[in-house]
Amino acid sequence: MAEGEPSYIDYEAFLDPDFSPASFANSLVLATNNATDTPLDLSTPLSRVLFDLQEIDTHIHTLTTKSALPLLTHTRDQTAAAGHILQEAEEQVSSVAQGYERLEKEVLRKWEAADEVRIATEKSLATVRLARAVARCLTLGRQLEGQLAEVTGRGGLSSGNDGMSPAPARDDYRALERAASTIVSLRRMFTATGLGEEGYGLEKVKVIRTLRNELVIPSENMVKSRAQQAINRFTMSSISASGGAHGQSGYKQARDARARLSSATTILYLLSPIPKDLPTASDFQPELLLSTFQGYMHTAIMTSLNALSRSLSMLPSLDKTLSDISVKCQDIYALESILGSLRPPSHPLFPPAPTERNGDQRESQPRGNKNNLLQPLLAALDTPSLPSHFWRTLASSLTLRVQEIVNRGGVSARTLRSNRDRLKKDIKECVLRGSQLPASSDKGRSGIDTGNWEREAAVMVSAVASVLDR
């Protein structure tokens, strides 16, 4: 509508967002008809609508006629402004595209080349690390062969496949210690195969698999077997008996026996498996070492039990049997004395323990110190001392053997009953004699042993007397 011209058309009603054609038509019909009329007159409201449309059309025509030039001018100005903006935008887009091409050439392509170099460098680094690990394993393998050559004298393993070969050609248990340390270092390389660890990727190298299967594992079995043999064959009493007339020779044999036991203990300590969830080095329990000593104790106890059971059936052989049993216990006592003076050796897989001075740490502590290799064994056997464990375990099984002899009856049972007083005395003397360090040991403790072992003697005597006195 032109400015200043009145109009009867309610433009605000038509422009209202809530305008409803149906409601508007209904209001026109009601305005031109009575609600009670049966026939409705629709021509009047229809004429009103047509007249309104004609008025609106006239109004639009008038507006467009009068405002055509301003509208065209405005449209032209808007089109020109839009063209100018589009031209400026195209220039900016072109500049951005050129900048991207330059960045792609100067940065992206260089980055792609640098990324290729990075990947190649990472692979080269992994190759170098793997090559170093392989070289270290091969170096340790050659070192292990040399150490075994010192023992076997043949440049490698002995001909026996089971590891139960005779004593080393050159009785060099120190070389076995060094070999055990080398084996542990190789074992560390073989197990550190996680991402970023020293031995990552070693399991994929054929020469390493060959080294492990053909050298390391057989060498470990051989070294382990030699150490276990040294412990199982440990004795000090036989040295006392054979070296009595030659004091210097007996002392040297005792020193060698002690050195062999110390080396064997160190070897089995090093070769004992380490749990993955070990909290600290102080919590480490050398299972291989403990099981070997437990086997040594079990063998000594069972051998003594079987021999004593046979001798109780044939009393003439009892004196020799009791003498042999006391010798076995003296060896056990000597074993306890040596273990009490040995500290846990430094382990390649554990951080070194702080020490006040450099030197041999294994025998520098007194026997009463808790930081020695005796304490784990005593804890595993649940006993205060090895001789006490020997006598008490022997006594616990001896009662049943004596009961079997008595139940069978006959001459053996009657002889036992008639000689029970002498038997008690001999058993007590056997216990007291066996609970002393051998004469070849340099740590004899005269004057206190008898009083300390009266209870063990009473337990052994009771094991026999409790059956014979019934």
Automatic annotation (TrEMBL):
Span of domain Conserved oligomeric Golgi complex subunit 5 N-terminal: 12-144
GO biological process, one term: intra-Golgi vesicle-mediated transport
Primary location: Golgi
Top-level taxon of origin: Eukaryota
Compartments it resides in: Golgi apparatus membrane
Membrane topology type: Peripheral membrane protein
Keyword Membrane: yes
Keyword Manganese: no
Composition skew (Pro residues), residue ranges: 345-354
Pfam families in the record: COG5_C, COG5_N
Domain Conserved oligomeric Golgi complex subunit 5 helical: 202-430
Any GO CC annotation of this UniProt entry: Golgi transport complex
Protein name, entry field: Conserved oligomeric Golgi complex subunit 5
